Amino acid sequence: VGAKTFALTSSLDRKYGSVAFNPSVVSEGGTAIFVVKMNPGYEVAKVTANGAEVSPVNGVYYCENVREDILVAVEYTLTKYSISVVQPENARITAPQEYTVEDEVILSVTPEKGYEATFVTINGTDYPVDENGKARYSGYGDITVTATIKEGRYAVILTENRFVTASLDFSEGGISAPVKLTAKAKTDYKIVAVVINGKSYDWTGGTYEIKDIREKTTVSVVTDYVYYAVSIANYLDGNKTTSAGFVSADRSTYSVADT
Description:
The chain has strands at residues 5-10, 17-21, 25-27, 32-38, 42-49, 52-53, 61-63, 70-78, 81-85, 91-94, 98-99, 105-111, 115-122, 125-128, 134-137, 143-151, 154-158, 164-168, 172-173, 179-185, 189-196, 199-202, 207-210, 217-225, 228-229, 241-242, 245-246, 253-254.
């Protein structure tokens, strides 16, 4: 009759790691030998064999004088990894200081006005930033985070004015990408100002360069009437009279809006 043998098994989920027995069965009175290997992000906290705690010797576990089947249980802890942030120019990254393999790390990128975040770079790999300025990361290991920041491009919209012929050379602009407004008033009108996002600027004639564009921009051209002088010719005497009587005017100037 052969020697009685006992099975060696483990309750550790493979998500967290594995237990390797060598051999996988042991004879009665023999020694069970095994090694515990945890997956990245998990660390051994306690190992038990049939409920009794076992300590490793140079990384190897031993259960001597085996008289029954052995069930190995492993308790684990989560490894904490550090997050280092290299702040980019023209933006601010907000991140936790540490994380574990079971965390979803949410990174917030807040660009200065006129700039946009396209990617965060984590240990050399780019991750997209969504429309809310968030990037997400899951993994393990210490990480270093920075971000790719670029100038934004924003629509520039010209409001119609029927008394002006006007155009923009580009339909969008940015901090270092100005947009030129060209405008000419129609007959009997003149341009007096340019209004950009509600702020009025003096019109200097011909063109106006819209600079340092950091948001959607609305442009309008403000016009006024051209006023013409009213004069009365002396064609009989110095008293501005005619044979019919005295000649006078009710104003000294008029515009196309007057009668």
